[in-house]
Automatic annotation (TrEMBL):
GO molecular function, one term: pyrroline-5-carboxylate reductase activity
Record protein name field: Pyrroline-5-carboxylate reductase
Domain Pyrroline-5-carboxylate reductase catalytic N-terminal: 2-96
Residue span(s) of domain Pyrroline-5-carboxylate reductase dimerisation: 159-263
Family affiliation: Belongs to the pyrroline-5-carboxylate reductase family.
Keyword Ligase carried by entry: no
Compartmental location: Cytoplasm
Binding site for NADP(+): 6-11, 68-71
GO CC terms: cytoplasm
Organism, scientific name: Halanaerobium salsuginis
This protein's encoding gene: proC
Amino acid sequence: MKLAIIGLGNMGQAILAGIAEKEVVPLDKIIVADKRTTVQNKLQTKYSNLQFTTDNKKAAQADYIILAVKPQVIRSVLEEIREVNNKQIIISIAAGVKMKLLNRYLGEEAKIIRVMPNTPALVGAGMSVLNFSASVLAEEKDFVQSIFAALGLSKEASEEDMDAVTGLSGSGPAFVYLFIEALADAGVLKGLNRETALQLAAQTVKGSAEMVLKTDKHPAELKDMVTSPAGTTIAGVAALEAAGFRSAVIEAVTKATERSEELGK
Ligand SMILES: NC(=O)C1=CN([C@@H]2O[C@H](COP(=O)(O)OP(=O)(O)OC[C@H]3O[C@@H](n4cnc5c(N)ncnc54)[C@H](O)[C@@H]3O)[C@@H](O)[C@H]2O)C=CC1
Ligand SMILES: O=C(O)[C@@H]1CCC=N1
């Protein structure tokens, strides 16, 4: 069994790092392809057993092929690999790129899996959402699920949900980083040193997220637990509400979802 990753940018490298860390696929069974040879130098120093190529057709001989190129270049890569590929499993992580388009290039019977991962996969804390074409066999599904489960949480969704998934968990890390940066800036404004402020901000977000995931409590209940009558927190919550924090976040996910829909056209 051989795995290829085509496109070793931010997300391709995050997936590779997660696979290497968890040893879910041995590195000597992985071939990676990118047009940039500078990526090769960097990756070969880091992972000595990895096979690297600039030839997508060579990578497309693998059994499972992860396409981690941008939506804007995926058509040209599909053109290249479709000459080689016939019964392999194609895993596309491209935002907005629909099954219909992938089928147009690879055939109606092609085994295609759409996945929307996110960059925290790099540290084993990713969120990946998978959508399978009907022709993918149970054991193939299991194998691909095992890869993404090793990178964090993984779950299945219908294709119609994939744009919203992209807007929320695909793009979401960037929104959360903005929040962390803003928390840290506020700490600095109030006299904390930058290093301390950033650590406090990141651990606060991590701990709060774990409370949501590990307790059965609704976020509103968890918020109420922090919010003492006439205390500090309610003063801050009121300021966030006055500034339209919730509607700004809803608008961010809505715009990201709409952009994913656009990329699919
Ligand atoms: N960055 C993220 O957080 C996430 C990205 N994605 C999806 O992952 C894909 C890649 O995104 P990023 O890693 O952010 O982009 P990126 O620009 O960092 O990486 C793309 C890589 O593809 C390479 N490339 C370009 N043309 C190529 C070709 N013809 N053949 C082989 N390699 C080629 C580039 O050299 C680059 O290394 C996109 O489709 C995006 O929608 C999905 C989930 C999250
Ligand atoms: O910004 C993007 O288009 C990609 C897809 C989801 C996260 N990053």
